[in-house]
Amino acid sequence: MTRRWSAIAAALMMVGCSNPGEKAEEQFRMVEQANPSPDDLCDASRKVADGYLEARDQERYASWKNKADINCMNARLGSQLGTR
Predict the structure, then answer these.
(1) Are 50 and 24 in contact (CB under 8 A)?
(2) pTM assigned to the model
(3) What is the CB neighbour count within 10 angstroms for residue 12?
């Protein structure tokens, strides 16, 4: 009986362990749909890149790092031009 519960608990723990990059990407999509400011997009895309870095997913990290750089540059330019 104890073995069965241990196996069930282990399976449930594995289900809860998702890729942090994918979780952050899902959150990014929510931010993206909520009329975000350029700063919001910058922060959210950085979190996605960091999540994929943590997950050791080089290809997705590089892609999201580029997106974050673009979003953050857009936020900086907007603040410099006063067009937030």
Answers:
(1) yes
(2) 0.74
(3) 9
